[in-house]
Every structure is written in C-alpha cells, then in structure tokens.
Amino acid sequence: MNKILIANRGEIALRIIRTAKKMRIGTVLIYAPQDAGAAYLEEADETVLLDGQSLGDTYLNSDRIIAAAKAIDADAIHPGYGFLSENAAFARACRDEGIIFIGPTPEAMEAMGNKIAARKTAQAAGVLVTPGITGTVPELMTRYNSVGFPLLIKAAAGGGGKGMRVVQQEADLKEALEATAREARNYFGDDTVYIEKYIEAPRHVEVQVLGDQNGHIIHLYERECSLQRRHQKIIEEAPSPTLTPEVREKICTAAVQLAAAIGYQSAGTLEFLVGPDLSFYFLEMNTRIQVEHPVTELITGVDIVEQQINIARGEPLALQQKEIRQKGHAIECRIYAEDPEQQFLPSPGTMSFYKEPYGENIRIDGMQLQEGAIITGDFDPMIAKLITWGTNREAARTKMIEALEQYFIYGIKNNIAFLLGLLHHPDFTANRISTKYIDIHLADLLQQLENRKRAADIRIPLAAALVFSLHPRNKTPDSIWNRIGYWRPVPEIILNAEGRDVTVTIRRQALPAVDFEYDATIMEATLTPAGAQQFTITLNGQSHPVHIFETAPGVVIVRYNGFDYIIKRNDVLHIAADSTPPPSAVTSTAGNICSPMPGKVIKISVETGTTVQTGDLLLIVEAMKMENNILSPKNGTVTAIEVAEGDKVDTVTTLIHIEEATNKK
C-alpha cells in the first residue's frame, strides 16, 4: 500500500493523514468547493477537487471518488466516518475496481451496518436486543403498534444521531417518520427508517473491536458516551465509570462474539444501552472508525487508524487480548459551532479569533483552523475534538477543565462554556447521568452556568480590561493622547461590562499599575503579561490569571475563571456594530420571519392565507445536516411566502410574512 485516498474532510481526514505519514504511506485528499483553501488540505501529498455544491456531487459520489483514486494511482481508500464509510455498495465497488477499502467487507456492512440486520445477528448470538422494526414510512405507520410508545426513530442505514427522534404519542409519529426519512436520504442516500422501543434513562456504552483477515478478533475495552444532545454525543470517556469489572467482562465478550459471528475485519464498534441495573442490550454496530476513538487510544496506547491500515493490507493482528490493558482515564469533548441557549442550533460563521489549548496530556483532533476561518453550514457543526488523559477520572476531568479554559473561539457561538458547566457539575463528578440528562436538565444547566458566572467577582475582569485599555501599546502610536494620557481630561470613565454601565474614577496611573475607585472603594490594580494574550491581574494584593483579547478599539473580551466578559470603554471611539451573529432564535420584525441560521429550506408547511397560531410549524431549514423547525412567534395570517423549497437562506433573508391577528380589520 503506497498511496491512500481519503474520502472525507475535516478533522478525521487530518487524523488519517498523520498516521499515514507515520507509516510512510502517501495520501490524497478529495475536497468539495466549500472546503477550498482549508489549512488541513496542505497536509496531504495530493488533493483532488470534486466540483459541485451538494454532497451527492462530492463526498457521497462514489463513482467520482473511485475515478479519482484510479486517476492518481491510489492503492486504497479510507472513508473515515460518516459519508460513505458504512456504504456496502461503495466498499463493493472499491473491491471490484481492485482498490483496497480500509474498512470491513461489504458483507459485514450488510450484516451489521443496517440496524435490523445487526439485531438479527445479535439475537442469533444470544445477545439481548430491544423490540424494533424497520421499513418505509407507510409500512411503519401500519406496524408501529408492535413496538409501543415511547419509541425511538432512526435512519436504518446511518449513525451519528442523524435523524434520531423520540416520539411519545401517535399524533407526532407521521411527521417524525417523514423528517427522519428525509434526513436519512439526504445524508446516507437511503430513506429506510428503523423504530425501536425507547428505554428510559439508559447509559450508552460501546466496545471497540479489531478483527484481522485471519479470524483473530480482540476488543480494546469500552467507552461511555451517555452525555448527548439532539441524540448526538458531546462528551465521551474511557473506561466507563458505570460498569463493574464483571459487567465490563460480559459486555466486551458479547461484542467480540458478535463481531466473530460475521467474521468482522477492521475496526468496529458495538454499541449497547445499559439500564440502571447494569443489564445491557445491543443497540447497533458502527462498521467504521468512531468519532470518539481517541479516548480508547489514550488508555490503551493503540493507534486504531494504524490497525485499520495494517488489517486492510492483510497483516495479522500483532496484538493479543491479554496484552491490552486500560491505563488511566480519558475524556473527549466535542467542540461545536452551536448555541446551547437556543437548543443547540448550529451557528456557522467566521471565527474572528481561534486558539487551541496545548500541554501535557492534552490532545486536539482538529483541522488546523485559524483566525478568519469560515465554519460553513453545509456540514456537521463540529469544530474539533478535545481529549485529555489522567491517572484517574478526576485527574482527566481536572485536566479537561484546564484545557477548556484555554480554548478560545470568538466570532461564532460555540459550546465551550456549556461543556465547562457540565464538567464542573456535581452530577458529572458523581456520574449521575444518562443519555437523557441534558434534554431533561438543559434549563437548569444553563441557569447554573449563568449563576456561576454571576458569582465570580466582576471587579477582576473589569480591572484587567481597564488597565489593558490604558496601556500605551493599545493606542495608536502617533496619537497625541499617547503623550499626554487621554484619560487625564476625563478621570471618570464609564465602562460597559456585560451590558451594564459602571463608572470608575482613576486616582493614580503609573502603568502597569492603576489605582481607581469603583463602587465607593479604592482599587489597586497591576496587569503583568504572562504570554500571548495571557496576563496576571493583581487586584488589592491578590493575583488572578486572565486572558485578554481586543476585538475592536475600546472593546475587549476578558476570559476569567472559564467565562468570557465583554467590556467596552464608552469614551473611546470605535465601530459599535456588533460582529457576533444574531441570536439563534426565530425573529419577527414588522411581521417578517427570518431564519435563525444560514441553511437550505427543505419544507414549507403553510400557504399564503393560512391562519397560524403561536408555535405552529411554518417551514423547516436544514443547517449543518440538522433539520430546524421554524415556528410561528405569534397568532396571525400568512400574507406572503418569500422563499421556495430548496432555496439557500441566511439570517437576514425574509422567509415568511405574517400579519398579526390583532391587526386585522
């Protein structure tokens, strides 16, 4: 194997490249026009543009991908995860063309990649499964009673939480089935839908397996991925803090038996639901590498991508089960461009500042993002994966908190503060979580996050911002105010801290020390540089680490205690236009309904003249491969529809005009 074509994008593409380089194997990376210019493309030995705007033209076009591999003499194709990674027809086409598919055989995909086939295999192997059925939307509408409510709807051919919905009652079933079928068709090219009985408050535990072409199969133990939003994982850890040693042995043994039953080759993951009594049920098999594979790599020392490549070129596993040990604890946080305060709506846009953490026992699987990078709405909103290791769970948790506090993303909404809140929460520390935890407790989690921020001493970021703004290096070099001190004529300064105006009076300035009066108290502050954007603010003799970023003249963001504080100098002339995107919520101005995010209109549910009530579905906008319902914010009548299904829209595009009921003559 001399050259691998990577049929994927982003962080997983870069992850595969790094292992291939270590193995001295050449790499070719395909890319869509939306990814042109991305920094990670430069890491590949060669790149191939697949022109076209849709996934069907690019990352889901198996014919064009295989043609590209043949044109540049690639021996093998690595599909990463998502896209064509679990497409048996693609794997078979690679084999037919004499190209090595770095993954399982198409037969194994057909046996385990489809949820219903996988369940039959599990039942034959004696592993418990939850009741479930599969089929088209019309078929399932006639058969759903055999499962009973509440039920869980999934894309039969997919994974990653795409299209997954919980339905509690019959009235919501048809719409949920149709939405799942649409997402499945758009993302996996197969609109077959699967229904299973929904288990209340389960844990999600998965087992990583490796199988070679000689029938040798081992496991690399388990991961727990119970913290999820929108049925997609955001925090994963290994080992599971839930399982006892006895249950761990049983679940890992069951995983190996299932993989052996189909002669599985390559890396794969068997997923299980674990009940409060630690009984477990087979859920599905992911016949590919998982997003969360780094936590397993950190606790076992095994490079899973390297194992995939070795298996694909026919090498026997060099590892024996008895050699695999779990060492320490690893936690992974997925960093997403999304707004937790708006039900995790995707938040694409341009990053005005980006800086990743680094240090011992911190790993970043990202895509070499930089300041000015655009997070497009055409793909999944994951920005990067942050992984930490510790000698035990508490050490890994503490290291993760430290890393998240050193992770800076500005210009777009993101989930860093929310992840920090979860890691600090006593329910996480005590492992009182389930797959439903975030859904149930979201409002409380957000409130506790806000309470923690309010409990912090606002004087610390306030003092840091004030001293920073007075320092000569933060003024125009040839300004007269640099020579005479532009604070002198106005010793009383109004600062806007987190939207609230506060007044400070400067009593003495001997930079980097400033004495000022705030809230009838004299403060002594000194700001000392400690690295790039890093400072130590000493306030009344107490020192505190902070990070400071100037986003515009007189406007700074101070990161203190894991929170960002926006502080403005009202007396400094600056461009006041906000650079942050509008809040991810349906807005209504003079009757105009706009989209909360850039995306594509995939369904319009009303017509001109339709009478709507507050909360009625108006249309659906797909962004970052997620469907987002746009609901009516008021009672009224639809007087105009400004878009059509298939149109691309942004946050200022008027979608629908509604005349309020109270305005009708």
The residue ranges in which pLDDT falls below 50 over 5 or more consecutive positions are: 476-489, 573-590
Please state the average pLDDT score: 89
CATH architecture of the largest domain: 2-Layer Sandwich
Radius of gyration: 27 Å
Number of strands: 40
Shape: globular
**CATH topology (level 3) name of the largest domain:** D-amino Acid Aminotransferase, Chain A, domain 1
Strand order in the sheet with the most strands: 14-13-10-11-12-15-22-20
Instruction: Compute the number of structural domains.
Output: 5
Distance between the termini: 75 Å
Biggest sheet features: 8 strands, antiparallel
Percentage of residues in DSSP E strands: 25-35%
Give an account of the 3D structure.
- It contains 16 helices and 40 strands.
- Strand 27 and strand 28 form a beta hairpin.
- The strands form nine sheets. Strands 14-13-10-11-12-15-22-20 form an eight-stranded antiparallel beta sheet, sandwiched between helices. It has an eight-stranded antiparallel β-barrel with strand order 24-25-26-27-28-29-30-31.
- The chain folds into five domains: 100 residues, Rossmann fold (3-Layer(aba) Sandwich); 66 residues, Dna Ligase, domain 1; 252 residues, ATP-grasp fold, B domain (D-amino Acid Aminotransferase, Chain A, domain 1, 2-Layer Sandwich); 111 residues, Glycoprotein, Type 4 Pilin (2-Layer Sandwich); 77 residues, RNA polymerase II/Efflux pump adaptor protein, barrel-sandwich hybrid domain (OB fold (Dihydrolipoamide Acetyltransferase, E2P), Beta Barrel), CATH 2.40.50.
- The termini are far apart.
- About 5% of the residues have low confidence.
- It has 665 residues and is α+β, with helices and mostly antiparallel strands.
